[in-house]
Amino acid sequence: MVSMAACQPIVALELAVIGFLAFSPGALCFDIFSNSGLGVQQVLPGLSVEPSPSALGNVVQIPLQRRFIQYNGRFYFAQVNVGSPEQSLELIVDTGSTSTWVYGTDYCQDQSNNSNYQCYDPNKSNTSTIIPAPPAFEARYPHNKFKGLYVEDEIAVGTAKLGKDTRFGMVQTGDGIARGGLIGMGFDTAEFGPNNSFGYQYPDILDLFYNESVIDSRAFGLFLNNGSVPENEARGSLVFGGYDKSKFTGPLVSFAITSPSDVRRVGAPLASISATIAHIPVPIWTAAGDVDVNGTSIPAVFDSGDMMTAVPVPALAELIKQINGYRNGMLNKMQPGGKFDASMKCGHSTADILVHFTFASFADTTITINVPFSELVLPAPWGEDCLFALQPKLKNPSKPYWFNFGSSVVDSMYLVVDYDTNTIQIAKANYDGRETDIVPIRHR
After folding, report:
1. pLDDT tens-place string over residues 246-300
2. Number of folded domains that form the chain
3. What is the pTM of this model?
4. Which of 2, 146, 400, 404 could cross-link to 171 by cystine, CB 3.0-4.6 Å?
5. Alpha-carbon span 220 to 183, nearest angstrom
6. Given 191, 215, 239, which residue is the final one in a domain?
7. What's the helix, strand, coil split of the chain in %, to 5?
8. Mind giving me the DSSP string for 159-183?
């Protein structure tokens, strides 16, 4: 078993789409744990052999850096290197979508007065190929839309490098979020396609790692860390092909992935929401057989690329009522039609409030994730106030329906997503785990 590690210097930033930019030096380190399967240790040139925590298979582990971006919000970034010679970019890790894309030089020219963007120049890479349209690249998110071209080039994630035929989007126009782009970790059938479709499918980074035997499963483990760590200092981790036992406590509870009926997404069945207020348990909401337009159970979809969490309107209304009954006026009241102003004053003492999210299947498999109220109070992207992370999800009786769980809740859990077995495992996050304990997942 070989542990291969490399550290590459980066700049740790406080990011802003419009506003102040502060720099401080830092480093990101990447590890690959490898076993040839024959008991023979192999070392890549220039990399050192170290004791490994496991000899079961191959994984790629990368650290994640949480950053707050003014006017956009909080995101978790991974460093990747694109092209030859390499161009270093920081990409948002997004379990809520599949396409991987970077900003191109055309986009950066339009943002010439904004130094927050890192852009990829295919003309400076000896291994790049621009794919003529059609199809052109398109990506659509609730508050952002992007257009551009497809490119093929080398991508290095840690010490693992994918070949020059790795396809990804290169954004030329759109409403940007700072840094270099995005890594999509969703189902491989959900790449964005033209004309608001999901029909243009091609191997994503997870698939390519598996296809090239860098990892032994189409699975990953995700740890985001939580908001008790100072902003822009939190470190998470993403493990391709395995998971890190040091980042959770208690058992990993397994569910079949539950998706909305329109397109496959990474979700689990949400059974109930409750709270503990001043040490008193308070029931808030239960699913009670609620289904979407096609009769399927309504999942909570885990979306690490969004800081907000959408919950049922009745659940949010009751939670606001209970919290305001204890701390008068801390949250704005729900308005008719499910409208809600999420802004709130910062600095409230909320140590005695917990919100509990329970996931359960028909097989009586269940786990409850306890989220401190402080985790749901986020710095507002636009100014000095704060923002309540829970938002109302209105139900449209004619469309598929799901609850979007962003990083404000996901950072209190550890997720293991396995597309080979169509399962998701959930555990309670462990913020005190210092030493990694990697467990590869093997399906061949």
Report:
1. 999 999 999 999 876 566 789 998 999 999 999 999 999 998 766 665 556 678 9
2. 2
3. 0.83
4. 146
5. 13
6. 215
7. 10, 45, 45
8. TEEE-TT-EEEEEEEE---SBSEEE
